[in-house]
């Protein structure tokens, strides 16, 4: 048994340290005479709750002393010879009452339960040792012993862990209030009242939109983009997430393709992300009335051989991730770009941000070499002037005088068609009905805080779907197992009549086979919360992540987790017109009050003071953390998984760009606290080396092992992509082979 017994913090704080440190020794010394459970509870030095509150017997030591004194006085007096006086009768009655009560207690304790055994033991202690106690201890000592026994008895019976709140809530950095910067949020109108039927589109296309896609009126971006593209112009389109950009280029693309015969090849290149299945639906959906237009997908997760076979047969609309397409450009003879008429770069800026610049250059060179005359469309929710020039430079001379379309107030016409076209704004627009929040949580408390948030939304509220963004595939796998083990078990007694539906966790990451992803049937439009547990590498990335909710005019919310040392990230986001309101960590943790599964030992809830509630919340958070740690330390494999997840988190932490290093620097991480957020009781040895030796003021016991080389910027990006966005490309396996291994050897205790 590993428990370290102690009560909650507060008035008994000094005793926590004392009991924590003496537990083991006391247990050892007394082990030969008492059961292990009893021993642990007996070493608690001071009851953490008011004396007598949980006493299971009406016996009061003070009464006992009064009676004993009275008995002594009586014994000193000469024995009355005749019938007893009234006074003496009363005294005897009292004594016999007491004795009969003791008998009842002892009779009850004959039952085989450990609870009763302990109660009996407690009664015996008080019955057997009054004189010795009178000489050597204070009046309340018997009472304390009883409390300890009853405490211990409860713990044994309910099989709940001891709680050491200090370890979770002590030594954390202060959480200063966030100074909310003044931000003007950019607004975009999503819908127009104009219908697709008003455009000169093929009637089958319009009926497919109306009947299959169930869309009749155009969004703002569609209203501006479709006519420009139908006119054969190149376009650069910036519009907020979930505003309908896919159909904005998909409709004119399919319309023009169906009009031209024979088959025309189209290359569409975009980074693999959550939109992929939806994109596929869009494109294949269009094919219902135009069966001769064949779409095809190249995005990893499938055998290259079968992709080659499809390419040989011929594809009219090619949807590809950059890495996979480059792979085919190098290895597949049947791929040819001579007939390419359209090039669509969706999320073009993001593709570059995520390190696909080289891949994009290879693709554009290949297309430019054989098919310079084509229509080009660049789209993103986060395109800036700077990024645009970068992409245009990459795309070469082939983008002809593009029409700039960006949404916003006063932007009812495409910019190039306006007399004085304003430039693309630096700030980013997010959906108007998106409520953005930030919470500052010290490292140690991150895991319980995330869990409390998930429990609050999924177990105790209805109709929520959450996406939690993490920085590595390993962390996704780890948390999936951990949450399924700890958060999904047991019934909730507080809701005995209508049990909440079980929480279902799914995973989605770049190391999964694509067919698995599709099989999940992700219903992204119904996502209500986006949680960014690891902050994104850029404000643009932030916008794309939160954009998975509040799509196409719907409501949605987001929550960004930051540690106290990362708080200035709020200002960085504010510089891009992103405004968030603060959520308090205590309020999130308070969700645990709804869950009796993680109830602590105290009875704080019955006392309504704010301090008592806070203490109860802390106890529950500690019970939950203890459950996580137990699950992680249940066997060697689970410890290894946790260590790998921690290692991958640290690796990802080193990949923040230089411009954000003053906020996200590996040096500012406390490895022991970070380890705790992965359910590890100790920081694994060699972490300093694994993080490139950048940790300061941390004892590094792995000096003898050679630290791995610092990753170059490019490899850092590649590592991040591997962890967060990779889609089964071959480079990934090469990266995986080069992982530093020293983390997996043993552990190093960090306070
Ligand atoms: N005219 C419309 N009317 C109603 N719904 C529409 C319309 N156009 C698109 N949608 C729906 O809006 C949702 C978002 O569309 P889409 O994925 O194209 O957005 P997006 O702007 O590309 O977003 P992101 O930038 O995040 O990729 C989809 O579910 C789509 O079916």
Describe the protein.
The protein is 44% helix and 10% strand. It is α/β, with parallel strands linked by helices and 751 residues long. The strands form four sheets. The chain has a seven-stranded parallel β-sheet with strand order 5-6-4-7-8-3-9, with helices on both faces. It starts with 12 loop residues before the first helix and ends with a strand. The site of adenosine-5'-triphosphate (ATP) has 20 residues, from strand 2 and helix 11.
Index terms:
5-stranded parallel sheet; single chain; disordered C terminus; 751 residues; binds adenosine-5'-triphosphate
* Main sheet record: 7 strands, parallel
Structural class based on helices, strands and sheet pairing? alpha/beta
- Our estimate of the beta-strand percent is 5-15%
Low-pLDDT regions: 1-61, 79-143, 153-158, 269-282, 417-421, 518-523, 696-711, 716-751
**Spatial extent as radius of gyration:** 34 Å
The ligands bound in this entry are: adenosine-5'-triphosphate
Helix-strand layout with pairing:
Layout: H1 13-30, H2 36-42, H3 61-76, H4 86-108, H5 114-128, H6 130-136, H7 141-158, H8 165-169, E1 191-195, H9 203-211, E2 217-219, H10 220-230, E3 235-238, H11 245-259, E4 265-270, H12 276-286, E5 295-298, H13 304-313, E6 317-320, H14 322-331, E7 340-346, H15 348-353, H16 357-370, E8 375-380, H17 385-395, E9 403-406, E10 434-440, H18 446-458, E11 466-469, H19 473-486, H20 514-519, E12 529-532, H21 539-546, E13 556-562, H22 569-574, E14 581-583, H23 585-589, H24 610-632, H25 636-653, H26 671-676, E15 683-684, H27 687-690, H28 713-725, H29 730-737, E16 747-748
Parallel strand pairs: 3-8, 3-9, 4-6, 4-7, 5-6, 7-8, 10-13, 10-14, 11-12, 12-13
Antiparallel strand pairs: 1-2, 15-16
Helix pairs in contact: 2-7, 4-5, 5-7, 10-11, 11-12, 14-16, 18-24, 19-24, 19-25
Adenosine-5'-triphosphate (ATP) is lined by residues 215, 217-219, 222, 239, 241-247, 275, 278, 381, 525, 547, 551-552.
């Amino acid at each position: 048994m590993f428990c370290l017994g102690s009560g909650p913090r507060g008035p008994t704080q000094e005793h926590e340290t004392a009991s924590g440190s003496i537990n083991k020794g006391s247990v050892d010394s007394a082990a030969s005479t008492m059961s292990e459970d009893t021993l642990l509870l007996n070493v608690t030095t001071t009851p953490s709750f008011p004396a007598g509150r949980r006493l299971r017997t009406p016996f009061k030591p003070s009464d006992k002393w009064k009676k004993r004194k009275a008995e002594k006085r009586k014994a000193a007096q000469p024995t009355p010879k005749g019938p007893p006086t009234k006074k003496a009768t009363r005294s005897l009655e009292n004594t016999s009452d007491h004795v009969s009560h003791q008998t009842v207690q002892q009779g009850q304790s004959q039952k085989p339960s450990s609870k009763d055994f302990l109660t009996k033991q407690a009664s015996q202690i008080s019955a057997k040792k009054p004189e010795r106690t009178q000489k050597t201890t204070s009046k309340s000592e018997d009472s304390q012993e009883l409390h300890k026994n009853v405490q211990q008895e409860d713990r044994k019976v309910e099989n709940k862990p001891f709680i050491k709140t200090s370890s979770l809530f002590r030594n954390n950095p202060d959480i200063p209030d966030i100074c909310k910067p003044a931000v003007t949020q950019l607004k975009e109108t999503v819908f127009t009242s104009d219908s697709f039927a008003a455009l000169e589109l093929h009637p089958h296309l319009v009926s497919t939109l109306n009947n299959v896609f169930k869309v009749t009126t155009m969004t703002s971006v569609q209203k501006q983009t479709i006519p420009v593209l139908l006119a054969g112009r190149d376009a650069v389109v910036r519009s907020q997430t979930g505003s309908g950009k896919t159909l904005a280029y998909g409709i004119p693309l399919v319309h023009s393709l169906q009009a031209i015969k024979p088959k025309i090849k189209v290359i569409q290149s975009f980074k693999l992300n959550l939109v992929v299945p939806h994109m596929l639906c869009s494109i294949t959906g269009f094919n219902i009335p135009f069966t001769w237009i064949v779409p095809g997908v190249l995005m990893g997760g499938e055998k290259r051989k079968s992709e080659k076979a499809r390419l040989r047969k011929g594809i009219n609309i090619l949807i590809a991730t950059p890495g996979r397409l480059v792979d085919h450009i190098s290895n597949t003879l049947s791929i040819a770009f001579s007939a390419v008429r359209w090039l669509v770069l969706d999320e073009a800026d993001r593709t570059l941000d995520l390190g696909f610049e080289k891949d994009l250059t290879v693709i554009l060179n290949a297309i430019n070499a054989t098919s310079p005359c084509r229509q080009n469309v660049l789209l993103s929710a986060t395109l800036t002037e700077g990024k645009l020039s970068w992409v245009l430079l990459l795309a070469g001379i082939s983008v002809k005088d593009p029409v700039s379309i960006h949404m916003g107030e006063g932007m009812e016409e495409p910019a190039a068609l306006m007399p004085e076209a304003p430039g693309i704004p630096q700030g980013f627009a997010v959906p108007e009905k998106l409520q953005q929040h930030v919470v500052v949580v010290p490292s140690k408390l991150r895991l319980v805080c995330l869990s409390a948030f998930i429990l609050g939304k999924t177990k105790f509220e209805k109709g929520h779907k959450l996406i939690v963004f993490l920085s590595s595939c390993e962390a996704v796998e780890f948390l999936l197992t951990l949450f399924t083990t700890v958060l999904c078990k047991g019934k909730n007694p507080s809701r005995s009549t209508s049990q909440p539906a079980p929480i279902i966790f799914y995973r989605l990451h770049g190391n999964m086979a694509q067919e698995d992803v599709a099989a999940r049937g992700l219903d992204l439009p119904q996502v209500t919360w986006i949680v960014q547990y690891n902050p994104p590498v850029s404000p643009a990335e932030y916008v794309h992540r939160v954009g998975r909710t509040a799509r196409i005019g719907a409501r949605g919310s987001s929550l960004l987790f930051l540690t106290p040392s990362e708080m200035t990230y709020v200002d960085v986001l504010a510089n891009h017109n992103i405004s968030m309101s603060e959520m308090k960590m205590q309020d999130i943790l308070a969700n645990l009050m709804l869950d009796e599964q993680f109830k602590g030992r105290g009875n704080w809830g019955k006392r309504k003071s704010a301090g008592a509630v806070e203490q109860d919340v802390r106890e529950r958070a500690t019970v939950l953390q203890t459950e996580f740690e137990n699950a992680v330390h249940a066997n060697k494999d689970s410890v290894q998984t946790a260590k790998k997840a921690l290692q991958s988190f640290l690796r990802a932490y080193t990949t923040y760009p230089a411009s954000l290093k003053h906020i996200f620097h590996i040096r500012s991480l406390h490895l022991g606290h970070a380890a705790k957020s992965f359910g590890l009781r100790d920081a694994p040895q060699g972490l300093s080396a694994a993080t490139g030796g950048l940790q300061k003021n941390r004892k590094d016991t792995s000096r003898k092992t050679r630290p791995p080389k610092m990753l170059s910027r490019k490899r850092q990006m590649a590592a991040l992509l591997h962890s967060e966005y990779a889609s089964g490309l071959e480079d990934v396996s090469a990266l995986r082979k080069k992982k530093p291994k020293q983390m997996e050897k043993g552990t190093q205790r960090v306070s």
